[in-house]
Automatic annotation (TrEMBL):
<dbReference type="Pfam" id="PF04535">
    <property type="entry name" value="CASP_dom"/>
</dbReference>
<keyword id="KW-1003">Cell membrane</keyword>
<keyword id="KW-1133">Transmembrane helix</keyword>
<keyword id="KW-0472">Membrane</keyword>
<feature type="domain" description="Casparian strip membrane protein">
    <location>
        <begin position="66"/>
        <end position="199"/>
    </location>
</feature>
<comment type="similarity">
    <text>Belongs to the Casparian strip membrane proteins (CASP) family.</text>
</comment>
<dbReference type="GO" id="GO:0005886">
    <property type="term" value="C:plasma membrane"/>
</dbReference>
<feature type="transmembrane region" description="Helical">
    <location>
        <begin position="62"/>
        <end position="85"/>
    </location>
</feature>
<keyword id="KW-0812">Transmembrane</keyword>
<dbReference type="InterPro" id="IPR006702">
    <property type="entry name" value="CASP_dom"/>
</dbReference>
<protein>
    <recommendedName>
        <fullName>CASP-like protein</fullName>
    </recommendedName>
</protein>
<comment type="subunit">
    <text>Homodimer and heterodimers.</text>
</comment>
<feature type="transmembrane region" description="Helical">
    <location>
        <begin position="191"/>
        <end position="213"/>
    </location>
</feature>
<feature type="transmembrane region" description="Helical">
    <location>
        <begin position="105"/>
        <end position="121"/>
    </location>
</feature>
<feature type="transmembrane region" description="Helical">
    <location>
        <begin position="141"/>
        <end position="171"/>
    </location>
</feature>
Length: 217
């Protein structure tokens, strides 16, 4: 009898011990749940970013393409201006004047040539940065050159065109354009084309500025 009561008491004690929750097991379950929750949050946070990488990359490439198109248009405009400047001459009463007789027009001619050479190289740089995924250091250097170079080019174009416009204003003031009408007219057209090229160059400058500050492409 006593043995049976003792066994029955031990059985009841074991049942009570099983009913008491194990804090170590509970903490382990909480840690597992927290880890799974953190992993799910991390995956949910990364998923939109992955989905956005495609559209953002497409927008950057589209911006570079648009910038390249405007660069090409600027080159065409500058070539037209160069041709107009270099062919400007007129002879009146045996006296011949050419563009190189006046410093502002020579300055505009030189800056237009430099701008054309730079923009052609810059278009090659844009194609390289758009097509090549390796060599990030080289792409970073080219991005710096594009960012600074385009701003310098737009500055020299505006200053050269402004200097030519000021010179022609003096021609009009002293009635030189009445005598050398063809000379003045052709240079006025060349200056207008230079200003148009400088305005169109604003678009590539904005694209390169965006790429520079986002460090993309």
């Amino acid at each position: 009898m006593q043995g049976g009561r003792w066994d029955e008491g031990n059985f009841q004690d074991r049942q009570r011990l099983r009913a008491i929750p194990n804090p170590l097991h509970h903490d382990h379950e909480i840690s597992s749940v927290d880890a799974l929750s953190a992993q799910n949050r991390h995956q949910q946070r990364d998923q939109p970013q992955t989905q956005q990488e495609g559209p953002v990359s497409f927008k950057l490439k589209a911006a570079l393409v648009i910038g390249g198109i405007f660069q090409f248009l600027v080159v065409v405009a500058l070539v037209v201006a160069i041709v107009l400047i270099v062919t400007t001459s007129q002879t009146v009463n045996g006296a011949m004047i050419v563009y190189s007789d006046y410093m502002p027009f020579t300055y505009a001619f030189i800056t237009a040539i430099v701008a054309v050479v730079y923009l052609i190289c810059d278009m090659g740089s844009s194609v390289f940065r758009l097509a090549v995924e390796q060599w990030p250091a080289t792409k970073e250097i080219l991005l710096w050159i594009t960012f600074i170079g385009e701003q310098v080019i737009i500055y020299v174009l505006v200053t050269s065109a402004s200097a030519c416009a000021a010179a022609l204003t003096l021609f009009d003031k002293f009635e030189k354009c009445d005598e050398y009408d063809k000379f003045c007219t052709q240079l006025k057209v060349a200056i207008a084309v230079l200003f148009v090229g400088a305005v169109m160059l604003v678009v590539p400058v904005l694209v390169s500025t965006y790429c520079f500050y986002t460090r993309r492409m």
